[in-house]
Design goal:
Structural class: mainly beta
Oligomer: single chain
Order of helices and strands: EEEEEEEE
Bound molecules: zinc ion
Number of domains: 1
Strand content: 25-35%
Number of helices: 0
Strand order of the largest sheet: 4-5-6-8-7
Length: about 120
């Protein structure tokens, strides 16, 4: 018989939180901007993203940015994220979600691939 005093891991503490902004006037969503890109309003309300998105097309990047991709989030804004996944599987159109416990202050959000990816030949 097992004892009933198993320690519950508080997973909620590691829940990733990605805040974006929604313009109160035209409802455009944006990320870390001072002005609404559509109407120029400064009246931006912070909202919490569900953390799901799709990798977007990127143009021109340096070697240091090789794992940084623009991710089009479900709420409509685009944020550059570090994508944690096998390079051969990371490409535009792939669905990703925010990885738990990886969003530090001032750091890039980290996302993981939603789909199961074959790891053959990865390591
Ligand atoms: Zn606006």
């Amino acid at each position: 018989m097992r004892s009933g005093t198993a320690v519950l891991v508080e997973e909620s503490a590691a829940e990733p939180e990605l805040h974006f902004q929604r313009c109160r006037w035209c409802h455009t969503t944006t990320f870390q901007r001072l002005l609404c890109p559509t109407c120029g309003s400064t009246d931006l309300a912070p909202e919490l993203s569900a953390g799901e998105g799709v990798i977007s097309v990127r143009r021109g990047f340096t070697a240091a940015e090789a794992d940084l991709w623009p991710v089009h989030m479900a709420e409509g804004f685009v944020v550059r994220c570090r994508v944690d996944g096998p390079p051969h599987a990371v490409r535009p159109g792939v669905r990703v979600r925010l990885a738990p416990g990886t969003l530090g202050a001032g750091r890039r959000p980290v996302v993981r691939l939603c789909e199961e990816v074959a790891l053959d030949g990865w390591f």
